[in-house]
Amino acid sequence: LLKLPSGTADLRQRKKQNCSEADKMSSKERKKENPNLGRTPKYVLFQRFAKLFFGCLAAVTSGMMYAVYLSTYHERKFWFSSRQELEREITFQGDSAIYYSFYKDLLKAPSFERAVYCKTLSLTINAVQQMTLYPELIASVLYQASGSEEVIEPVYFYIGIVFGLQGIYVTALFITSWVMSGTWLAGMLTVAWFIINRTDTTRIDYSIPSRENWALPYFACQVAALTGYLKNNINSSAESFCYLLVSAATYTFMMMWEYSHYLLFVQAVCLFLLDSLTLVQTEKVHEVYKIYLFSLFLGYLLQFENPALLVSPLLSLVAALMLSKCLEVNMKKGTFISRLLKIMHFYLVFTITVTLNFLLKMFVPHKENEHLLKFLEVRFGLNTTKNFTMNWLLCQESLQAPSQDFFLRLTQSSVLPFYILVLIICLFSVTQVIFKRIGGEPLKETVTLEDGKIGERPEIVYHIVHTLLLGSLAMILEGMKYFWTPYVCMLAAFGVCSPELWMTLFKWLRLKAVHPILLALILSMAVPTIIGFSLWKEFFPRIMTELSELQEFYDPDTVELMMWIKRQAPVAAVFAGSPQLMGVIKLCTGWMVTSLPLYNDDDLLKRNENIYQIYSKRSAEDIYKILTSYKASYLIIEDSICNEVGPVKGCRIKDLLDIANGHMVCDENESYTYSKYGRFCHEIKMNHSPYVNYFTRVYWNRSYFVYRINTVISFQS
């Protein structure tokens, strides 16, 4: 080996410094000669601005057109503009009637305190806290503050806000797909698939005022902002804007829906997995954790110190992640010890989360959502029960496994096959990246089209993990499809419009005949165009037919019942009956009722179960004691429930009551004794003793039988 003479290294270092100084001097001189050197050309800036402007215009236009479409379809379905106020209100069924009735009460309330604390269930309750009526509170304030009393009727203002939020929902999905793929063609395809699969993407057709219709648009905005926030090559101003939007949308989403923290918990699990596998910048993930904590704290204060937020799994998980961060030591260096510590990190977070949640539930008094845990135990076969409420929940279609028709509809619209294709390609790419991270390869700041590694982009990995978790839940509970199916539309549209995804596929296939970049660009434009034309040809005539058909919704028996109550019933009357009917009575007449179609509180569920005993095989004396304990003065029997012929054996209301009361043979292995009493709803119609001693019939039609509950019992032979 030749040894360099002393001073040679110093000489080379001085030459390098002289060269660098010369380069700097030359660059300065070049900038003086040409001031525009190093700046982005104006035509490039104009091109970027035009792309952003037309993309935003397309997103907003899509949302507005969807809102107009919903309004037109609603008008055609219910003939809303040509009906009287009572007939309009009857179109709100179930929980929808309760939410809109409180909106009416809030507009009529003389003070804020009277609006919040109202007498509904024959007792005074904090309606806003008990029933999550913040959307109605905000809508009533906006209606009065904007001076809309002389411009638009309250019902049109209310449903207009909901339809407008659905437009924002679609716009957020458009933007998310656009940000992921880089082309607003993906956003248009997302909106097309969303509208075509409207039956499985939203509940707006069945229940306009439902909490999901108010909350999910804000969650979609949060996801869109989070998608931009997680990108590696985002500038500081855009990152700050996305961070503020994530904060605002997260808190608003938490205020709109009592179960929002469960969906945010799933999102937090996704971010935890990404951070643990070094697929996203740790600093950004922990900033999102801080947003969760801030939203939980502020929500707890403004929701009248809601204990459900303190015992939520989201708070326990985020607190565990914050604690475990302090214990991280050399976990992302690629060594064997770091891999072992990473496994221990998973175990540590899981242990702290479970322990903390257990301690919070032990020391924080709460009753919220206990029935959910009991339901999950029965749903997964961990327990059996004869309880009426649990069995009634198990019979609900939204809480069962999805049917084959659901997958068939998604396949016919072509969204499911493309979603599966995109998911498989992204999963393989993400798996490759995970193995590289385990091997110690650092996270790349930018991923170019030539790289063909779509799994390197953190926002794509987040959506892949999120859709897998939501899809797993949707395979268990059909009601979760309203959270998963919009993701299916968005990811499928992103995949077929993304040149990077096609480039990733071509890298694996090692194409040589055609330049892969050129082919990827061509396919990212040609495939969605072909899909769009096929969807237009097949589904556009169906949508236009829906808008042109005049449907009829008219329930004369219910209208007659409401008119009788408003004309004949005393003002202090309290009505008892099925929760669904009580919701309509509360909305249309304003009279007090004994039960409501709400299932987020154990006391309300128990009250509903007791009132439902009017359809069981129990004595007149037992029913009388139950009704008077809730201060009921009138009883309404529905013929549709009493003589119900359900499609599923054992899921009728009277069957569930017989099982709970031990009046029905369930199967060959276990038998129950029959009751010595007939079914109450049948026997009371016979007008014989002892039923006439307790109840007096005052009104009836083809569907309803109304009885006054006697305060002075006269025994007749």
Describe this entry's structure for a reader.
Residues 1-9, 19-25 and 329-334 have low confidence and may be disordered. The chain is globular. The protein folds into two domains: 162-365 and 401-546, no CATH class; 556-709, Rossmann fold, CATH 3.40.50. The protein is mainly alpha-helical. The chain is 65% helix and 4% strand. It has helices at 8-33, 42-78, 85-90, 95-108, 112-116, 127-131, 134-145, 154-181, 184-196, 198-201, 211-230, 236-256, 260-276, 282-302, 307-310, 313-325, 336-363, 370-379, 388-395, 404-412, 415-438, 458-474, 481-497, 499-509, 516-548, 556-568, 579-588, 602-611, 620-629, 639-642, 653-661, 680-683, 691-694; strands at 117-119, 124-126, 574-576, 592-593, 634-638, 695-700, 704-709. Helix 8 (154-181) packs parallel to helix 11 (211-230) and helix 9 (184-196) packs parallel to helix 25. Strand 1 (117-119) and strand 2 (124-126) form a beta hairpin. It has a five-stranded mixed sheet with strand order 4-3-5-7-6.
Termini Cα gap? 125 Å
How many β-strands, per DSSP?
Answer: 7
Report the principal-axis shape.
globular
Q: What can be said about the biggest beta sheet?
A: 5 strands, mixed
The number of distinct structural domains comes to: 2
Any low-confidence stretches, pLDDT <50, length ≥5?
1-9, 19-25, 329-334
> How are strands sequenced across the largest beta sheet?
4-3-5-7-6
Cα-atom Rg, whole angstroms? 31 Å
Strand content: under 5%
- Given helix and strand content, the structural type is mainly alpha
Level of helix content? 55-70%
